[in-house]
Amino acid sequence: MILPAISLDVAAKDTSLLTSLAVVGDVLLTPGPQGQTQDPSALLEAASCWVQLPSDSTVDTALDYLHAGAAKVVVPAAADYVTSLLQQVSSDRIILSVELDGASPATAITAEAFGYLFTVSTAAEDQNYVKTIRELTASFTSSRIYWSTPSVPPTIAAIAAWDKHDINLVVSSTHLSTSGSSSNTLDLGEAFAASLTSDRPDGLFATIVVDEQRVALGLCYSSVKSISEAIRTRTGVYQSRARGLWYKGASSGATQKLVKITYDCDKDTLQFVVTQEGPGFCHLNTRTCFGADSGITALEALLRSRKAAAPQGSYTRRLFEDPVLLHSKIMEEADELVEATSKADIAWETADLIYFALTKCVANGVSLADIEKQLDKRAKAVKRRAGNAKAKWDLSLKQNGATKQEPAATAPGQNATAVAKTETKVERRKEIVMKTYSYADTSDSEKEALLLRPIIKTEEILARVKPIVDEVRSRGDAALLDLTAKFDGVKLQSSVIKAPFPAGSMTLSKKVQDAIDQAYDNIYKFHDAQLDKSVLRVETMPGVVCTRFFRAIEKVGLYVPGGTAVLPSSTLMLGVPALVAGCKEIVIATPPRIDGTVPPEVVYVANKVGASTILIAGGAQAVAAMAYGTDTVPKVDKICGPGNQYVTAAKMVAQSDSSAMVSIDMPAGPSELLVIADATCNPAYVASDLLSQAEHGPDSQVVLLAVDLKPELLAAIEDEVKTQGEALPRSDIVRESIPKSYIMKMDTMQQAMDFSNNYAPEHLILHLDDAEKWVEKVQNAGSVFVGPWSPESCGDYASGTNHTLPTYGYARMYSGVNTLTFVKHITSQTLTKEGLDRLGDTVTTLAEVEGLEAHRNAVAIRLKDIRKGRE
Ligand SMILES: NC(=O)c1ccc[n+]([C@@H]2O[C@H](COP(=O)([O-])OP(=O)(O)OC[C@H]3O[C@@H](n4cnc5c(N)ncnc54)[C@H](O)[C@@H]3O)[C@@H](O)[C@H]2O)c1
Ligand SMILES: N[C@H](CO)Cc1c[nH]c[nH+]1
Fold this sequence. Notes:
Layout lengths: L1 E6 H6 L1 H7 L5 E4 L10 H6 L2 E4 L6 H10 L3 E5 L5 H7 L5 E8 L2 E2 L9 E5 L7 H11 L7 E4 L7 H9 L2 E6 L3 E2 L8 E2 H6 L11 E6 L5 E7 L1 H10 L3 E4 L3 E4 L8 E8 L5 E8 L18 H14 L6 H7 L1 H17 L3 H21 L4 H13 L14 H6 L15 H7 L12 E4 L5 H8 L6 H31 L7 E3 L11 H19 L7 E6 L2 E9 L2 E5 L8 H14 L3 E6 L9 H9 L4 E4 L2 H10 L9 E3 L4 H12 L6 E2 L7 E6 L5 H12 L6 E7 L3 H17 L3 H7 L4 E5 L2 H11 L3 E5 L3 H5 L7 E4 L5 H6 L25 E9 L1 H18 L2 H14 L5
Parallel strand pairs: 1-2, 1-9, 2-3, 3-4, 4-5, 5-7, 7-8, 8-9, 10-11, 12-17, 18-29, 22-23, 22-25, 23-24, 25-26, 27-28, 27-30, 28-29, 30-31
Antiparallel strand pairs: 5-6, 12-13, 14-15, 16-17, 19-24, 20-21, 21-32
The structure holds nicotinamide-adenine-dinucleotide and L-histidinol (HSO).
């Protein structure tokens, strides 16, 4: 192949010539006639170049040019810094040059480089030269040879002849033309095509047309002539087999700017890199001939079309028109990406950030190609930057209150170790501090906002959950195994354990077993008392008897969370009422531990409540399996239990799908607690209660309503929250949840009670002098803990009440799980002849009012018989 060369002086004067030459590949920038008279850095922005260094250059010059973006530097093989340079940068970036004088080298080659450039006085093919070159490079892996004859005009025949020896000819720009051959210049297209071979009878070259991201747009054919025309016009010109030269888009307007022409390893297929204008490459007006585009390129195309003409109400249009909103969204998404930890969340947040960042680019005329140019340039940099964050963002500075010195940029191998040492590891640790508000100074709208829970992106979560549910529905057990591997990192052979459970899977210490047994007894006692097993019988009028009786829901699925904590207590809270109610089949779902097993405490309780199946799966996939059933998981009639946002969303999805025929208990999400404390409170107790729920998960929210507390008492509570919180094993979670929580200073108890009823907390602690008295004022709460000796933890485990409670404010209309959750009531009525005689006219009259004749007739037909002979 040819390597076009241009002297620095000429290129500086005529950058368009430089960029035209670069259409067929990298360009060699050679020193001007007086040596290196020009700094090549600016030219490196315009095209991908190799820079040939003059004999007096140093290792720093080489590093500077490489760092500035030179694809390669051509260094005299005899230069004393070759070894040093090769220690600092990859040999892929270096070409060693040797002058050959009459086939004998002036210098020996001693180092491996990307390739070797031989400068000679003849352009003609010469077997002696070929032999010498092969001998000089025989000991190196790379056999890329470049042959330069600066003053001799090459011929197409010479290019092809050298090519047969696998030797590339360097051709000076003074011997090249982009507008056809002349007596002393070669046409660039023809010179480029001289090395190509066609495997087709018509001599054409198959040409894959791609966009700047290398997405294939379609397939064309090229001839030497069409290649020359493409280079001359810098547009997409091909050889149509039917119509001759084809100037793409000339009639349709879907023109192309030619960016680059490359060739494949066999030199028989071309790749045209183009910027496609208009609707697209395909005659069907799509961007590609291979169907719909996807990924980032599709996003860029969509954003461009929105910029040109966005429909009313388009969110992207809003972003284009409101730079402040766009700014805020970029910051928000960057922050969410920083917070994300799971693989799925990181991908999700990155996609969000890319969407908003690309919107900014498109709004400002920046293309994906511009971004990639920057990335490619950075990939060429050879000097390391210190990489510290700006002071504004440097969390380590904020944490230490210190000022840090920005180390200077360094060349690799020089003082990189020193740089590494000065860079401190930045750890993001939030303070365990609740925000404080004063009820009197808070506006109504702020109060409204404080009544809401940390925002859950319902649509986003649903968008993640629906495909999971669909997958389990369609692929059953196989999907369960795949999703468990994906989300829980565990490869299981089977997702279920069937009763009787192996004794070894539920072995516990006596202490733990006794504690579970005690908790079981209390929960059983309280839940057994909730079910009135008698039949309700009321004679509403003589001869008309109504009854109501209960039946247990036959098959129930109990979700026991297990993502961040083992929860045998939740197994009790769901299993015991289901057992008391008399459910015939109990399926318990819980995520696997990292070794694929189920915690023995959970198996122990499952066994105690008579579960038939333990489903070893968590999240939306477990809910879906119980809702629709699989070959191994029984389909259930009702799904109960708390869980994270995926679990809650999947329960909602299943409930709203009538084909699933399944109901749910309630939306029970991240735990929450509201404490009302007065001046008699113990600050350590208050803090411990707040932390007990804050440790559940980063989304948990705790609220303290401080009624007329002295500043010292409030400060003591805040101190306790901080010190107790920092000492907790789950302090990382608390550092996330406590900053989302708050203290509200209240003047009166009534104010506090009203606020609490509006908030409708899952758990309410009345840490008050006369706590009992205030219970009757509680309108909305999941469960209430009365007085200083009733910590919320007792309700979580063993007092007897249920801990599966409504969150997010649903305590306004939902009860927590109880025995009635697992039963339904059926009513019956029995009418005697006399009874129907008494009630019949009421029914026929109302049926007439509703115009329902068949209803009326069902009574009238009987009344006629009853009253026969009477009227
Ligand atoms: N209200 C109550 O009565 C009550 C009781 C106990 C626990 N809780 C709450 O239950 C929640 C338990 O949450 P958890 O996460 O510890 O356990 P979990 O069992 O609810 O969820 C874990 C599962 O979530 C799935 N998952 C995780 N990341 C995912 C992703 N990116 N996409 C799809 N699925 C994903 C995985 O399958 C994993 O098995 C906490 O919020 C806690 O406060 C509430
Ligand atoms: N507080 C949680 C639900 O509100 C339940 C729980 C389980 N283990 C400890 N606590």
